[in-house]
Amino acid sequence: MNKIEHIGIAVKELNASIDLYQKLLNTDCYKTEQVTSEFVNTAFFKTGDNKVELLEATSADSAIAKFIEKKGEGIHHVAFLVDDILAEMERLHSEGFVLLSDSPKKGADNKMVCFVHPKDTNGVLIEICQEIKWI
């Protein structure tokens, strides 16, 4: 794993939270995106080398809606950038970690993603992600 790619924060209202984080971080949201496969709308902020992703549920059945219902708004996951997501998934699986999918999915911000079950990581949902390379 190369570095923390971003911190994901679950929010109830994306537009209100965009305003809040623009003030808090003193920077503009650089991208919003809908990830239909995960039933979320996202917004991204960059401060220095660090990124923050806000996640708003678009369905009551989404993982974000269930997270907010159970725990309230707050940190949802920590994402780590990897060079080869398939190799990293294989490595994690061989180390005994439970992955939440058998293959990577297209995520937000031009990434392929996979999540590690929080039961295996002291209650923290871990995302591994790889930049999608365009030829």
Automatic annotation (TrEMBL):
Gene3D superfamilies for the chain: 2,3-Dihydroxybiphenyl 1,2-Dioxygenase, domain 1
Iron-sulfur as UniProt keyword: no
Top-level taxon: Bacteria
EC main group: isomerase
EC assignment: 5.1.99.1
The entry's keywords: Isomerase, Metal-binding
UniProt cross-references to CDD domains, sorted A to Z: MMCE
Domain VOC, residue spans: 3-131
GO MF, one example: metal ion binding
Membrane-spanning intervals of the chain: none
Listed GO biological process terms: L-methylmalonyl-CoA metabolic process
InterPro entries to which the protein is assigned, alphabetical: Glyas_Bleomycin-R_OHBP_Dase, MeMalonyl-CoA_epimerase, MMCE/EMCE_epimerase, VOC_core
Matching NCBIfam families: metmalonyl_epim
Similarity field: Belongs to the methylmalonyl-CoA epimerase family.
Listed PANTHER family: METHYLMALONYL-COA EPIMERASE, METHYLMALONYL-COA EPIMERASE, MITOCHONDRIAL
Protein's name according to its UniProt entry: Methylmalonyl-CoA epimerase
Species annotation: Pedobacter frigidisoli
